[in-house]
């Protein structure tokens, strides 16, 4: 499979990077092609709703999303969303990518998907909010979910490395 | 999917908005994230006759779009009631995403001296009421307003940011009653994190165009909430 991993964290060596790296290691060992796009370290612009694309064409923003990512999203078999929970949602950086799906949204429909998130808190309602969002998103995009890693109580890299979540991410990639 | 099909799937907007009169303000759940909308505020429940400081944060890049209309009507009502309003249009302000550097420690200055830090943060800390007004992009806040919400982090441990009254207003093409729950759940979680209280919601489903929202009941709801705070 061709897999696109979209990360949302602005912290290079943080909790969700561990999840992303482990997932990618598993997926590569299983022979899949992985393209990783770290939205917090790319040149990106939010969708301005101009509708010049007509939902099926070039975006007015000639940035890393348009020049590099969007074609890979169209051509991939699976999209993986990786993000720390910021105010119970994806980071603004990753949400920017999702809003920009708009220009090719039909062509990004009907993929496999996975969600890998980490939260500092262990409040279940925080995860409930992101799960509800992911469910709406996958339903609309007609994505078939192959797995979710919801790592709570993981404030930093040391904390997440003591849990089973990195191994679960690895196995998720490996068994694809 | 072409645009017509998109409207069919996510919208059915033009017809059903007239038929359903949609988006009633229902009752909210209590402790959990019910995902349901809240009852409207009772007259002067919050102000008790005093003048309020209100911050309105908008998320749309359309200066004259559907959610801007809700913001306009809400502000009109609030101003008529004598309250003061600071409006921050996230899509038209220069600001940076939170980089999670934690220099602020959740209670201090951000490393960015941009418009969030210089124009929004002080009014936000002093506000009695904060209104989050967004178009629904992929079932939740637009990236533009989410980026601003993420920046609240710099004062999450600051008592001045706690205990505020919050309002949520959103607009969507889709006219299904099942359009807004993920947004509302995210909103409710934000309120829990900040120790804010929901003071009202306008969930304008079936409003994919300015003409649709102008002929709906939602503008009136936004106005009334502003007027009755």
Question: What percentage of residues of chain B falls in helices of 4 or more residues?
Answer: 25-40%
Quick one: how many beta strands of chain B? 5
Strand percentage of chain A, roughly? 15-25%
The main β sheet of chain B shows up as: 5 strands, parallel
What is the class of chain B in the CATH system?
A: Alpha Beta
CATH topology descriptor of chain B = Rossmann fold
Rg of Cα set of chain A: 15 Å
> How much β-strand is present in the residues of chain B?
5-15%
Describe the global form of chain A.
globular
Radius of gyration of chain B (CA) equals 17 Å
**Separation of termini of chain A?**
9 Å
Assigned CATH class of chain A = Alpha Beta
Overall structural domain count of chain A: 1
Q: Say how many strands of chain A there are.
A: 5
CATH topology type of chain A? Rossmann fold
Largest sheet of chain A: 5 strands, parallel
The share of residues in helices of chain A is 25-40%
Largest interface, counted with CB-CB under 8 A? A-B, 42 and 45 residues
Domain count of chain B, please report it: 1
Unreliable spans of chain B are: 1-31
Could you describe the 3D structure shown?
The complex is a heterodimer of chains A (176) and B (229). Chain A has 176 residues and is α/β, with parallel strands linked by helices. Chain A is built from six helices and five strands; from the N terminus they run βαβαβαβαβαα. In chain A, strands 2-1-3-4-5 form a five-stranded parallel β-sheet, with helices on both faces. Chain A is globular and about 45 Å long. Chain B is of the alpha/beta class and 229 residues long. Chain B has one domain: Flavodoxin domain (Rossmann fold, 3-Layer(aba) Sandwich). Chain B contains eight helices and five strands; from the N terminus they run H-H-E-H-E-H-E-H-E-H-E-H-H. In chain B, helix 3 (66-80) links the parallel strand 1 (53-58) and strand 2 (84-89).
């Amino acid at each position: 499979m061709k897999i696109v991993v979209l990360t949302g964290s602005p912290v290079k060596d943080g909790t969700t990077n561990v999840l992303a790296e482990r997932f990618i290691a598993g997926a590569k060992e299983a022979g899949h092609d992985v393209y990783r796009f770290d939205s917090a370290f790319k040149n990106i612009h939010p969708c301005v709703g101009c509708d010049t694309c007509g939902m099926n064409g070039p975006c007015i923003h000639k940035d890393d999303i348009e020049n590099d990512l969007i074609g890979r999203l169209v051509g991939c078999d699976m999209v993986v969303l990786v993000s720390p929970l910021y105010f119970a949602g994806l980071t603004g950086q990753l949400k920017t990518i999702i809003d920009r799906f708009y220009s090719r949204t039909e062509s990004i429909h009907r993929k496999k998907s996975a969600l890998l998130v980490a939260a500092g808190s262990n409040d279940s309602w925080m995860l409930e909010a992101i799960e509800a969002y992911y469910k709406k998103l996958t339903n609309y995009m007609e994505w078939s979910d192959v797995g979710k890693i919801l790592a709570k109580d993981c404030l930093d890299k040391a904390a997440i490395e003591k849990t089973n979540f990195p191994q679960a991410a690895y196995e998720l990639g490996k068994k694809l | 999917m072409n645009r017509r099909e998109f409207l069919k799937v996510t919208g059915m907007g033009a017809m059903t908005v007239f038929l359903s009169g949609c988006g009633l303000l229902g009752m909210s759940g209590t402790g959990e994230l019910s995902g349901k909308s809240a009852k409207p505020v009772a007259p002067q429940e919050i102000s008790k006759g005093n003048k309020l400081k209100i911050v309105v944060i908008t998320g749309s890049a359309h200066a004259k779009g559907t959610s801007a209309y809700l913001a306009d009507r809400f502000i009109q009502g609030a101003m008529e009631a004598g309250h003061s309003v600071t409006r921050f249009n996230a899509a038209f302000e220069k600001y940076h995403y939170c980089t999670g550097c934690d220099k602020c420690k959740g209670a201090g200055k951000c490393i960015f001296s941009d418009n969030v830090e210089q124009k929004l943060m002080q009014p936000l800390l002093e506000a009695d009421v904060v209104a989050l007004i967004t178009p629904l992009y992929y079932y939740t806040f637009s990236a533009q307003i989410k980026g601003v919400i993420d920046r609240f982090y710099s004062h999450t441990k600051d008592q001045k940011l706690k205990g505020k009254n919050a309002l949520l207003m959103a607009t969507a093409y889709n006219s299904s009653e099942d359009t807004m729950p993920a947004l509302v759940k995210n909103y409710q979680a934000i309120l829990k994190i900040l120790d804010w209280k929901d003071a009202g919601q306008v969930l304008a489903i079936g409003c994919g165009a300015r003409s649709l929202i102008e002929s709906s009941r939602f503008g009136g709801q936004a106005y009334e909430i502003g007027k009755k705070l």
